[in-house]
């Protein structure tokens, strides 16, 4: 009989981690729907970026208030999770605070955890106030309704509850309180329970302990459905983020081949195709759906935590245009999820659903409003590149559909005909020196 | 008015069997836009003053393809790029300077993958290097003590992390350099990039250039300094639309330095 809690604990752990593993599998499969892209270069720079930007939060602190609060929650979250290790061992082995045998150091550890728990609790409340009372503009943009808005608040509630449970668990652990070692915060909570019998207090302690670990396991599985996924994906995302100067756009290799062939006087335009050349599917230029994007761009979409720093810096958005870089990322993720579910429902094969990222999610008006100024890329604290998606969708519109706005078509015709975006003769290019 | 200035072309250099120190890539704005042509001339005057042996491509120059690429026409971009690279490589060009951050970015970053490898400098970087080498002197002149704010071009600043060269030059004018609330890596775009220069903006509640000009006006400058012909146009229009053209001038850094010396 006495093993029942251990067995229940093991089952909870296996179910929780099992579901999570399944989520991760799905996540990786969906990300791999993207085009392949070589990111094997600049390994040391990439590790450095990850260390600085993700681990070191270097871009978060560009906005000092939210950056500071975020660091508290981030550090608190990581360090307090050391406690989870003890909880798991205790749960499986039926022990109680197994690490307490290490002596005074244990008190130091728990003491630090308790202080951090309070700091996290307070920070999360400030986050909630910023979002719901002060109503900071970037949290109330058009795309921040329904799920995105609720998701953000749920995360804050879950964090408050988890921190509270941790402190209650310690406060009602009478043995731990009696040790007088590390209960720096919880000792002040213990009196709240003083009127209760020892048995009741024990039940509260057990309940808090169980809810704490079950809550963590549930939270782990909530990630996949939430913007909170960034706590894991920020690391690979900053690693795989853009290394080249921000102004540099990728050159399309397929186009390069064609252009070089056109420019090469030795090419015989009537030559038969070399063997096997016709087998390749003709390349589609640009992106109209998520499968046309690279897997790094899809990873970007899952990493986005919808903070809106990009949108709040976007010149188009600031001046009332529909474009919001955050929405570009959210749309990409939503569509990717839809494609993933489609694949799940059709035994592993995507069945055309008559929808795509372009028009069904992202409108042309949004795409054409971008000034390619890179403010969104610069603002992102986790190296997401919304602009690259915009440009690739423009590539599709122009190169596959010839659907650029008329004025841009005129500009391009001019470049084609006379080497300048306006209808001036190339032979007049040096006239300025005589004017 | 016609004041002839000497602007040697690569073809002339080639005919004499000589190679210039640097190729000045004028760009479409610098060649055709009335406002930008003044910047081109100011820069040429500074090159002469500093005894820089330079040449232009003249009629052999063509659009770098930047607006085509940003608008999504990769094919047209690469056609332009490869054509330009053929010309540049035929002349064995090693070093290029340009007063347009868009040309600068494209040639510097996007041409190497297509076979065009050059040392490319923005004109503010180049002027700074002339200054450091002692070939150019910068004096305050009429700009001494003036409040000047620098509007960072996206493709110079964020695009290529160049923030200090233009500022160093402004400081040399003994002017008071004042920063807008969003500057350097957080500088607000003028609204022209990404081929927006060539089309009407999408519906919104304000033009981007007006918004940026308002940010500039907040710091009460005498002069808004620009480092890009597109920004220059956008900011000039912005100043006009806020009826401040009698109080605030929009000038390129090259013009500031040239005018300070009454060139």
Describe the structure.
The complex is a heterodimer of chains A (435) and B (263). The termini of chain A are far apart. Chain A is mostly helical and 435 residues long. The mean pLDDT of chain A is 93. Chain A is built from 19 helices and no strands. Chain A is 60% helix and 0% strand. Chain A has two domains: 4-31 and 63-240; 253-266 and 282-425, Fumarate Reductase Iron-sulfur Protein, Chain B, domain 2. In chain A, helix 2 (43-55) packs antiparallel against helix 9 and helix 5 packs antiparallel against helix 6 (146-171). With 263 residues, chain B is α/β, with parallel strands linked by helices. Chain B is globular, with a radius of gyration of 18 Å. The mean pLDDT of chain B is 95. In chain B, the strands form two sheets. Chain B has a four-stranded parallel β-sheet. A four-stranded parallel β-sheet of chain B has the order 6-5-7-8, with helices on both faces. In chain B, helix 8 (164-172) links the parallel strand 5 (147-150) and strand 6. Chain B has two domains: 10-131, Rossmann fold (3-Layer(aba) Sandwich), CATH 3.40.50; 137-260, Rossmann fold, CATH 3.40.50. Chain B is built from eleven helices and eight strands. Chain B is 43% helix and 11% strand. Chain B has helices at 10-15, 27-32, 34-49, 66-71, 74-90, 101-110, 123-132, 164-172, 208-218, 229-241, 253-260, and strands at residues 22-25, 54-55, 95-98, 119-122, 147-150, 176-177, 223-226, 249-252. Chains A and B meet through helix 10, helix 13, helix 17, helix 18 and helix 19 of A and helix 2, helix 3, helix 4, helix 5 and helix 6 of B. Chain B: This is (Fe-S)-binding protein. Chain B: It comes from Gelidibacter pelagius. Chain B: Keywords: 4Fe-4S, Iron, Iron-sulfur, Metal-binding, Oxidoreductase. Chain B: Residues 22-108, 148-235 form the Cysteine-rich domain. Chain A: Residues 295-326, 360-392 form the 4Fe-4S ferredoxin-type domain. Chain A: InterPro entries: 4Fe4S_Fe-S-bd, 4Fe4S_Fe_S_CS, HdrC_iron-sulfur_subunit, Helical_ferredxn, NarG-like_sf.
